[in-house]
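User: Quick sanity check before I run a bigger batch. Here is a single chain. Can you write out its predicted 3D structure?
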Amino acid sequence: MFVGRKTEQLELKNFLSGRGQAALVYGRRRIGKTSLIKHVISASDDSCFMFFEAIEGSYESNLMSFTRLTAQKLDVPLGSYPDFLSLFSFIAASGKALVIIIDEYQYLKLSRKEYSVDSEFKQIIDNIPSGIKLILSGSYITIMKELLAEENPLFGRFSLIMNLKELNYLESQEFYSNKSNYEKVCFYSVFGGCPYILEHIDPDASLEENIVSLLVNENSVARSYIEYVLFKETGKAHTLNEVLSALGNSKKRYSQIESELNMKSNGLLSTYLKQLIDMNLITTSAPINKRDDKKKVSYMIKDNLVRFYYAYIFKNRSLIQNLTVSDFLASYIRPSLNTFISYRFEGIVMDYLRQNASSIENEPVLNIGSYWYDDPSTRTNGEFDVVVQYASHYSVYEVKFYSKPMSKAEIEKEVGKIRRIKELAPVKIGFVSAAGFEVQNSDYIYLTSDDIYQPNHR
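Assistant: Done. Predicted structure follows.
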């Protein structure tokens, strides 16, 4: 089942029908790059496409495989070529209109030193006739991003550059569309938006049953994906595991992570964090009113599935082996699962507001994020997690993941807390409750999980 990616589909279709000669599509493993490309070309004439997947082997073995594919596709005798440049020259001379996809390009790049293969493909792209288009795809993000660096021979050669990321919460719901909107929040909070993982969800089973089958069992799909596939490109799985384990289900500042891992202040942590950011696994956040205050910058795990794994599975692997599944769930997951989901629900609400905040108040948005406040009346400080900044005011949203409607008393309590922060005035107040509200009045904005799963509902 192919789900979502409407923007990416359109971009690829425009590339195929436009003037550009080369495209770059990259993203971490199992995120859906190959599926996207094949889906876009599936409605076209198959004879116009060559799909080649490079292997983790020598340059010569990849060249031979590509030569066989060329002979089959062009219906010509098997030839012999010293390099890809010569082979592409032969393909160009055939006069046939083709879209050539080279998947897992990083293996081809790594088969020779430094920029050797990139230099060769620069010449290929520079000499491609108008009837041929080339798509390079790869899953080693750090290596594929090298192609975009100014010093790389392929710099400036791509008319389309696509960094493919997870499906959003609206797209992901298609894999468990039979669930209530409240349950959809739970599933997305735990399993995230990686299509490969979502395809293995049993929509007829409960959240806990899917957690067991996909994450708790030792050889389960999601657990194996994280433990054996995710960090294959880095060769530093142990260190990255430690960094992610330190973050868990929280957000922490650089100094806190450094201290917890007992790392020397030599810049190595910065390298690891950048690598995880490049892989779209973690992200940084800073209050919208403290963007330039480095002390307020925090790191957190961005990928929901990875976040769940490091919050519950990674540190408890030996316990899982010694306990029954029911005991592990009862003792180590169930007591804090609602809290885990509530943090992720804030992320879903933030995504919703990025798309809908301007229409909710009929005013352009300046910024969305958290807001750092100081409350002199109580001599306390802290953060409001979901705040929208407009030109004329701020709108502060209190987000609650409850199994029952939010009470009037709690609403009034939260209103009092927000009203005390005079620097926010004038301020509008919104509430997002997954299970709705006991009462509503016109003074505030109210949203439920049903609203969140109805985009542009206002």
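The radius of gyration is 25 Å.

User: Great, the batch can go ahead then.
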